[in-house]
Amino acid sequence: MSAVNVLRRRCLQGLLGSACLPWQAVRAGAPVVLRLSHVVAQHTPKGLALQRFAQELAAISAGKMQVQIYANSQLLSDDDEMQALQLGAVDMLAPSLSKFGRLGFPEFELFDLPFLFQDAAQVHRVMQGRVGQALLAGLQRQRLVGLGYLDNGFKHMSANRALLEPQDFVGQRLRVQSSRVIAHQMRALGAQPVVLDFGQTRRALAMGVVDGTENPISNFWTQRMHEAQTDVSLTSHGYLGYCIVVHQRFWQYLSPLQRAWVEQALQGALAWGNVQAQQRNTEDLQALRASGHCRLHTIHAAQRQRLRQALEPVYQGLAQRIGPQWLVQLEKERAAA
Which family does the similarity line name (predicted)? Predict the structure, then answer.
């Protein structure tokens, strides 16, 4: 285990040892404080939506419930946060959908499939339909409660060259989340996937540990990745979203009224956050273009089709792992008018 991982483990142990379940020990009349950790900056779409949730929950509950937010990997890294939730070191997370695959929910990697969705409306139809709701219900297998979905947006490729054709990817070391679908995607294009914490990506790009990565523009801009990359290819090849999740232990501790407050506050915050995601990605793209730091490349229909054809084995591989019925149902909901 590296020195960095040892330090993280000690910090996690300290959290667990100091006050694992503080909401169980609140004095009469004191507010329930919900601890929420995430790994992106506060002014990203996710960061803004979670701040909105905290504000709405405090207002709806008249201050009887409060949210303490730890943003930008301040408290926990990608690797630590799911274990921390299961052990009680935090109460709520908003992990990317990709992270559920390694917890035993490979069906969540449906959302990682490349060139699957044309727009956010298609994504939302699937999330609100049978597929999305079945995914949330299935979290009970690990004693988790899924409370909703949140957009970040569509991902684009960055590197020190344009990445628009399958041959452009050959030999590139590309940072990815821990997702078998995304890793398979990169290998199918001839690139080498490198799994790294999101918080380590900017430094890895600057040091040349990896050659490029994929991200929505808001993540790319707020993490200043444009200072370490020369080219951004506007591929919109994949969707990045999040699932708001708590542990059953925490959820069962809350009264029915408190659960209703949380659900009401989340419903409003997530709807608001999805609008913010679209606006923020548009604004950050304008800022990136104005900065002059990167060359921006637009993908054409023929290039998109060649990439889609090269990535067909990724669909076949996921269907073999989770069963074809998931993809059949998803396609019905995605294509519905």
Answer: Belongs to the bacterial solute-binding protein 7 family.
